[in-house]
Amino acid sequence: MSPLQFRNVDADPDDEVRTWPYEALVTAIDRGSVPDWRRVIAEIRRSPHGLVAQRIDRFLAYRPDDAVSTLFSLALERARAADPR
């Protein structure tokens, strides 16, 4: 069970990441911890051009630049380099 909590989102943190709505992904990045980020990054690796990766990419476009943003940007970049379309 994850200590991550979603508010006003029709999803549970224990659901598969690919089922989370945009707001849940934002919450996981902004208020989650390393175990939560690992789950999101695993989904990015599984589907580097999929909906979760696209949503993360969109969020990173306006999220303040910090270490967490860098982590997810690198995860997207590396996953897409390993699976170019």
What does this structure look like?
- This protein is mostly helical and 85 residues long.
- It has one domain (22-82).
- It contains 4 helices and no strands.
- The relative contact order is 0.15.
Order of helices and strands: HHHH
Q: How many alpha or pi helices?
A: 4
| Total individual domains | 1
Which band does the percent of strand residues land in? Answer: under 5%
Count of extended strands: 0
Task: Give the overall pLDDT as a whole number.
Answer: 94
Globular, elongated, flat, extended or rod-shaped: what is the shape? globular
How helical, in percent, are the residues?
55-70%
Largest sheet: none
Helix- and strand-based class? mainly alpha
Low-confidence stretches: none
**CA radius of gyration:** 12 Å
Distance between the termini: 35 Å
Task: Please render the helix and strand layout as text.
Layout: H1 22-31, H2 34-46, H3 51-60, H4 67-82
Helix pairs in contact: 2-4, 3-4
List the main descriptive attributes of the protein structure presented here.
58% helix; mainly alpha; 85 residues
Task: Give a short summary of the structure.
This protein has 85 residues and is mainly α.
